[in-house]
Amino acid sequence: MLDLEVVPERSLGCQNYEFILGMHFSQAVAIIQSQVGTIKNVQVLYSDQNLLNVDLIINISASGLRLIFDSVTQRLKAIEIFNMKLVRLRYCGICFNSPEILPSIEQIENSFGSTHPAVYDASKNSFALNFRGLTFYFHVDNKTQANLGNHGLSSLHFGQGNSPVVSRMTLYCGNSFAECKAPPLPISCYNKQLYVESATVIRNSSSTKGLRLNLFTEGSVRNLESCKQCFTRDILFGDNVQDIASSLGAPSRVFFKSEDKMKIHSPSAHKRVQRKSDFFYNYFTLGIDILFDARTQKVKKFILHTNFPGHYNFNIYHRCEFKLELHPDKNDQLNSNPVIVTAYSKWDSISSKLLEPSDNPVVLHRSSSTNCSNIFGSTFCYGYEDIIFEIMNNGFIASITFYSTSSQSVFSPWAGIQRNDKFNDFDIKLK
């Protein structure tokens, strides 16, 4: 049984780990993976067709615990304990819920102090006791329901042994669970990493020049507390390894391409012999991959990831909040309406403005080297100018690839969506 400390409007955790409101989905997953054998029976719940309007949930059924993430920001919005019998809870070091201590109304008031009268919900036969950042829900039986009337719980006196006990509890930021939102990423969760606030694609009439990144990270210490530091960096095609490292720091991982199965799409691919391996700089917290040419050591490709659940690479990257502006009418860019593409755009809304109806996609199917099947299925890649859109079966963009059109760069534009470690430590369920 987990023994956890409750901190209203902040966190639920213990000495070894802490689930902090506002933390990114991948950080919560990392905690769970580090507690193998302690945190058990974990499932990820999401809506396959309605990814942006239904919360992303990590359900820890063995501990009666549910972590609720905002589907857009993918940050922890609320924590729900739906089975109080499966977990031991403390507040300010004092236990208020355990097999030996029932969380009755009197126990909650003794632990957390007085608050407003409880709010009764007749449709659910329950009432809620609200504190700032914390709500306790009690089930109402028929005898208690007859005594409620219109006076609320403040007028009730429960006999010894008859006091209702908490059936579930929610932890959040703000005054009510119904109106709570995921807070910004707490500085305690920065972990000295770099994060992207927004990314703008720098383009001319028909080609990409690079990316303008609005970044933030942990700044200098002021009054014994760290602060958020923001800055902007431009990364361009033709930048060398030193340029990128100076702008973005060391990558999360360096990936060397061992083979290129997509080179068949390049003209005269059989005549080309690659003696050295191109390599990626993977920036997981930015949601960006940068491909360098093996010969020149210069950037020739950018890949931006959206990190939607249901994709093979889900949970490897943070979502890159990019904005891409395209002008299909090259002859009259001033008067034509641009096509705006973001990480939340659906392919149906932009494809008719960019592509001919006869354009056919390249089908991309990922699988691991251990012959494990890809439960998420194939994705579809569409080319437009110097851009490749990778589209999921539900129409959402999985990634966007920008490749250099320089005559000095000789390679397949379709190559380079490299295999990564797949998200296989959880059961994935669709709502």
Automatic annotation (TrEMBL):
The lineage of its organism: Eukaryota, Metazoa, Ecdysozoa, Arthropoda, Hexapoda. Belongs to the PHAF1 family. It comes from Polypedilum vanderplanki (Sleeping chironomid midge). Pfam families: PHAF1. This is Uncharacterized protein. One of its GO terms (biological process) is Golgi to plasma membrane protein transport. One of its GO terms (cellular component) is trans-Golgi network. It comes from the Eukaryota.
